[in-house]
Amino acid sequence: MAKATLRKTSKPARKTSRTGVRGASRSQVPASRVPLPASRVPEALLLVGTMKGAFVLRSDKSRKKWKVEGPHFRGEAVYALLHDTRGDRPRTFAATNSMHWGPTLRTSNDNGVTWNEGGPQTVRFPADSGRALAQIWQIAPGRATEPNVFYCGVEPAALFESRDGGESWQPNQGLLNHEHQPKWQPGGGGLCLHTIVLDPDNPRRMLIAMSTGGVYRSDDGGKSWRARNAGVRAQFMPEEQRYPEFGQCVHKVVHHPSRPGRLFLQNHWGLYRSDDWGDNWKDIANGVPSDFGFAMQMHPHDPDTVYIVPIEADVFRATPEAKLRVYRTRDAGASWQPLTKGLPQSGAYENVLRDALTADSFDSAGIYFGTRSGKLYGSRDEGASWTEIADALPPIVCVKTGTARPA
Amino acid sequence: MITVELPNALCSYTEQNPSLVLDEPCETVGDALAALGRRSPGALDRIMDERGDVRRHVNLFVNGENVRFLNGLSTAVPNGATIFVLAAVSGG
Questions:
Q1: Which residue among A355, A362, B36, B74 is least crowded, i.e. fewest CB within 10 A of its CB?
Q2: What is the pLDDT of residues A63-117, one digit of tens each?
Q3: DSSP secondary structure code for residue A372 in this structure
Q4: Which member of B45, B87, B92 has the closest CB to residue A121?
């Protein structure tokens, strides 16, 4: 079962802080980062969604030892989690899905200690749509200036928006009635809208990705959407049709708010970067053992650094050569290096799903991922070394981070 | 009068009450579920999706008979009947 402490000790975190300005050192850290009194130091949260419930892990800022709570929602799959602190109180969301009783969205106002139960389903398709919610795949916060705005990406592929802190949700009509919609096809996990990227500077621009369907962008506040998949291949199509306008099986797209026009994309075969908000994509699979994979995570402070976990193939969804390796680029995809210290390098037939790789926002970024076999790993030094936090959870499908004031 | 017996999993939607008595007239299973939804919209959402389809892994029994093998939501519910809501065989 889950471990309450780390089994191994990582090397101390790098002493140099990464602040979003490359090369910034601790001496340059702004006044907002001077140490807080102990009573105000936020605790680190790890939210882990599994096929049989959610676990909440808590640690102090050192992130050396984790207290494991759960499972919440016993027996229900939890594919999406979010801890949001933009408003005047923290809000935590969990998208749960019971095999018997269906999907629903639950919330917590006390950092995941207790969860609401018993309300009606708030994320629901209009009666005239002929569709029914199968699963919530993503819960994303709105912009910093709109603390009551949230988005949900769901299956069958659709985008929902809440403007009242998650109390009520409305479907995005532009996507719901998109002319391409009848031709979107489910991938292995279902026809899921799993990625939501907001332009932090332009409130009218946002981007979503679905599997399968590909990337779509709106430049008019969500009224209309254009497919943005130029250069992204659809390996599963006949050779002469491998670069369609839409229909790609995109697995994840990430961006950094300081470079919002730049996007990184992990495809169902293919690793790409765009520097123009998805108008064009170029292959950046430089030095990876496979360009197939699901998970992709942006470094919280460095717009050139991205993490992935390559998977051998669509027909053999396991880490190549039975080695569990996170790959990191620090030059925006020009090269990728394996991160292996503390991870098993033999006999590891693992898979890390699209939302099971994440980062925290501490100065020395913590990187975390969970496997389909229920192992949870963490790094306190941006991936240089890893420790096993838990080794026998149910299959992990989602890992997210947050911070909270200690109780 | 119709009685609806709910599994433990749904009692959080009915203030922990596993047995609801519906006083309004109900001729069919569909009528009874609609009445249940007026009492507890959350419980109904767990039994049926927003299209009005009973979820795939939910079984409804009227006086011991699975309505899937009767007339589904149109199955008649005589006065005094009990509807059992049960999780079907599935899992993983």
A1: B74
A2: 999 999 999 999 999 999 999 999 988 999 999 999 999 999 999 999 999 999 8
A3: T
A4: B45
